[in-house]
Design brief:
Blueprint: E1 6-10, H1 14-26, E2 30-34, H2 37-43, E3 51-54, H3 63-73, E4 79-83, H4 88-96, E5 101-104, H5 109-140, H6 145-154, H7 160-167, H8 171-185, H9 190-200
Parallel strand pairs: 1-2, 1-3, 3-4, 4-5
Helix pairs in contact: 6-8, 7-8
Length: 206
């Protein structure tokens, strides 16, 4: 059975930590609270979080500085800012750095839960995309140097006959290489090969 999402809360206000934790747990979410950015970072490698809600202005390290640290270690981990002292420049900086939303205290419960749901959805999609890219990289990594060369000609839109002429081999040999590319990558169409190559940074040979 899948566990409910785990939310980290970082704020120096004990009353808010308690209230927010109670609210999220009432929504069947798991929570772990931290009274400072430093306390959060000390525990960061030991806790598996799905989203973080953090304040901007805290004693010691600020929320924006913490955001940089989080992004450097886990760039796909979504976060929301919840602050009573935010400014427009702060919100712009936070969102440009990848924050899902920048909310002000006191926050409306429905607004917070909507933002949190969006953050969890975006985080889950980012993880799926990353896993898919890793698997794609693994499959294309099985290609031999010659098969990769043929692939780069194929995604340029060249027919087998033209590729064979450029490589100085028979057309049948190119067909065999293309068959092996399909078998190893699991990608059947030229359009899909072009898309996959683009995601992996594989360039066509014009």
């Amino acid at each position: 059975m899948t566990e409910p999402p785990h939310i980290g809360i970082v704020d120096d206000d004990p009353a808010l930590l308690k209230a927010l934790g109670r609210l999220l747990r009432s929504q069947k979410l798991r929570t772990t609270s931290y009274a400072s950015a430093e306390a959060f970072l000390a525990d960061f490698e030991n806790v598996d979080l799905d989203c973080i809600i953090l304040d901007v202005s805290m004693p010691g390290m600020s929320g924006l500085a913490l955001q940089e640290q989080i992004h450097a270690r886990r760039p796909r981990l979504p976060l929301l800012f919840l602050t009573g002292q935010g400014t427009i420049p702060m919100s712009v900086q936070a969102v440009k750095a990848g924050a899902v939303d920048f909310l002000t205290k006191p926050v409306d419960q429905a607004e917070l839960m909507t933002a949190l749901e969006r953050a969890l959805t975006e985080g889950a999609q980012a993880n799926r995309d990353a896993q898919e890219l890793t698997e794609l990289r693994d499959r294309f990594g099985r290609l031999s140097a010659r098969e990769l060369e043929v692939l780069r000609h194929v995604i340029a839109g060249k027919p087998n006959k033209a590729i064979a002429a450029e490589l100085g081999v028979s057309e049948q040999t190119i067909k065999v290489h293309r068959m092996r590319v399909t078998q190893k990558t699991g990608v059947n169409s030229v359009v899909a090969l072009v898309r996959a190559a683009d995601r992996l940074g594989i360039k066509a040979i014009d």
